[in-house]
Amino acid sequence: MQGWALSRGTPPPTPKPWGHYIHVTDSDAEVGRHVLPETRELLVRSAADSVTTPRTWMKMPAEPDDIAPWMPPGWVVAYEETGHLMAVDVRTTHPVVPDGYTVEVERTDAVVFVRLRDADGGKAAAGQMALLGETVVVDRVVTDSAHRRRGLGQFVMRTLADEAVAAGARQGVLGATAPGHALYETLGWKKHATLAECVYRP
């Protein structure tokens, strides 16, 4: 959660009895999120009962169907947002830039950005990561629809891994979507938990 907040430029997570709360500043769909590292009914209900602001989210390691019965009125399990907590021991692979593209690598404080641009200068793919000592948190890896199935996502991930090793990191962590999960598995990432999400929509 610290890495996610650092990557997104949000205020630092605020400790709560059930985990942490992150105030989100860059999304119309979300005003904040509660992150629960441990999923127990009492903790989930306590976090949910503390919320009065619509578009507040909760995320926790659990199967969506397991937490659905615990949700009080106004809360919706976002099955379509179900994610996968994944990790890998990062290593260098020195990827080659795909033909027809150029790569930009930029570091701002503790966040590294990788961008692939096409021949016209348009952004074809991108990704970023937050540096937390020996761990990096990978975030916002995306390929433009017109440039998919060309290995650009793999190139971005491998470039981020190279940058992570250069910064002294040993482990990478991310929360993958369903489509991203398949890509990361091909790169050696291992799933450690399902991430259930729910949102307050009274």
Automatic annotation (TrEMBL):
SUPFAM superfamilies linked to this entry: Acyl-CoA N-acyltransferases (Nat)
Gene Ontology MF terms: acyltransferase activity, transferring groups other than amino-acyl groups
Protein's name in the database: N-acetyltransferase domain-containing protein
Name of a matching Pfam family: Acetyltransf_7
PROSITE patterns assigned to the protein according to its UniProt record, in alphabetical order: GNAT (PS51186)
Superkingdom classification of source: Bacteria
Organism of derivation: Streptomyces finlayi
Residues covered by the N-acetyltransferase domain: 72-202
Gene3D superfamilies according to UniProt: 3.40.630.30
